[in-house]
Amino acid sequence: MAHDGASAVPLLAASTKPSKTPRNMYAFGCATLASMTAILMGYNLTLMSGAQLFIREDLGLSDEQIEVLAGSMNVSMLVSILAAGWTADLLGRRRTLALANAFLMAGALAMSLGASYAALMAARFVTSIGAGFSLVVTSVYNAEISPASTRGLLSSLLDVFVNLGILLSYVSNYAFAGLPVHLGWRVMYAVGALPPVFLTAGALSMPESPRWLAMRGRHGDARAVLVRTSDTVGEADLRLEEIKQAVDAPTAAGTGGVWKELLLQPSASVRRILVCVVGLQIFQQASGIDSLLLYSPLVFRKVGMSSNDAVLGVTVAIGVVKTCFILVATLLSDRVGRRPLLLASTAGVAVALTSLAVTISVGATSALSAAASVASVLATVAAFSVGFGPMVGTYSAEILPLRLRAQGAGLAVAVNRLTCGVVSMTFISLASAITMPGCFFLYAAVAATGCAFVYLRLPETRGRSLEDMDVLFAK
To answer: What is the pLDDT of residue 191?
Structure first.
């Protein structure tokens, strides 16, 4: 595939209008099956939001132990995230997702049976292995199975299902809050042990990624999958030819290992891609979204909401709003583009977090103050979910070159989870040091900086093939 490497590529790249060809429902079904594993990741990650209220009372844990327990999963996830690329290249995308479900089921059972702080920490570690595999491999699979016309939509499904899991965790918190203290939180985790059985069957029924098949020299199988997941047979043949060239590129160039090319001796275009990928991941999590998801009960109690039922009921509303606006982003990503959604989202998060900080800093504990805080939290979640949430994973997965995609996606998610772990494991301590409003002013400043980063560094990728990204980042 010949390209004019000297041609300048503007930030708002000129691209053809989205094709009017009907959606490829087979590709949609494949991406949906792959993304459903992420339900369990979202469920287990944020179930701690409400469960911590009862675990604290049942096991007598301190604030520091709760803080570490809630955020440790993001840090321990690094093990499987960094191994996910290698595992997915070795076993294939499907079998790695099946393995992820096995760890998620084991982790849910271990959490429900945990009788001490150490046991719960071990259970969170087991869960984190499955969650890390799920995050990395699903994003890679969805990007690789999708035609260019719907890649934004299909890549966003991962975040849709993560947020569905988050919503279900809030519903579970609310539904089982009335059970005895020693039983309620255990049931919350136990109900997450059965779905992995069905999700494993679904993952194994999917076709393998055509790009993985091509990397294994199985070009006939790769073409068969591409014919079913492309809008036309001609597009399938073009995609296969581009994949073959991308697979052969490292050998032709005489490059070394993937990590060497990715980190030690990156080309100019790969370096630009890494800056965009790593920068997006850091800004997304450093803006404090997980602090709201995990510690919103503490925020609402700060403004005078003392009832567990009221607090947990509002968290359900957070889950509903987050899921609804993720769907909006999913529908708009291939029509509006990634860059406009990211710009609007980062700016909106900065404004909403500033509003929340101002509301809390007033210090009142009236119904009006509580309502204003709830409105600010919901506005933050809505703004985040319309772009900053789903588009970061979509953008990162699609701009990485094929030969670097699995390991590059693993690196991106590792940076994301490490940043998230730092934020979620320090919120209570940071709020004690600089006050809770100070935390949200800080997060707002990060989001505003992220908006500037998107404006200055990120070109539009809508409508481009995955194999065309090197040209986009050549200038």
So the answer is: 92
Taken in order 164, 166, 168, 174, the sign of the CA dihedral is negative
- pLDDT for residue 5: 38
Please name which of 348, 313, 355 lies closest in space to residue 328, comparing C-alpha atoms: 348
The CA distance from 283 to 281, in Å, is 6
DSSP for 203-238? HHHSPPPHHHHHHTT-HHHHHHHHHHHSSSHHHHHH
Q: Rounded distance, CA 408 to CA 401, Å?
A: 9
Other Cβ atoms less than 10 A from the Cβ of 323: the count is 22
**Complete DSSP assignment for 139-155:** HHHHHHHS-GGGHHHHH
Nearest to 172 by CA among 159, 189, 160: 189
Instruction: Tell me the C-alpha distance between 87 and 93, whole Å.
Output: 8
**Which tokens is 90 given?**
């070795």
Which amino acid is located at 189 in the chain?
Y
pLDDT for 450: 96
Burial 396-424 (b: 16+ CB within 10 A, else e): bbbbbbbbbbbbbbbbbbbbbbbbbbebb
**Tell me, what's the pLDDT at 22?**
55
Reading the block at residue 150, the tokens are: 């719907």
Q: Please classify residue 256 by burial: count the beta carbons closer than 10 Å to its beta carbon, then call 0-12 exposed, 13-18 middle and 19+ buried.
A: exposed
The pLDDT of residue 9: 40
Q: Which pLDDT score, from 0 to 100, does residue 456 have?
A: 93
SS3 185: helix
Q: How far apart are the first and last CA of the chain?
A: 18
Q: Which residues, given as ranges, of the chain have pLDDT below 50?
A: 1-21, 251-256
pLDDT at 235: 87
Residue with the two structure tokens 């899921």: 323
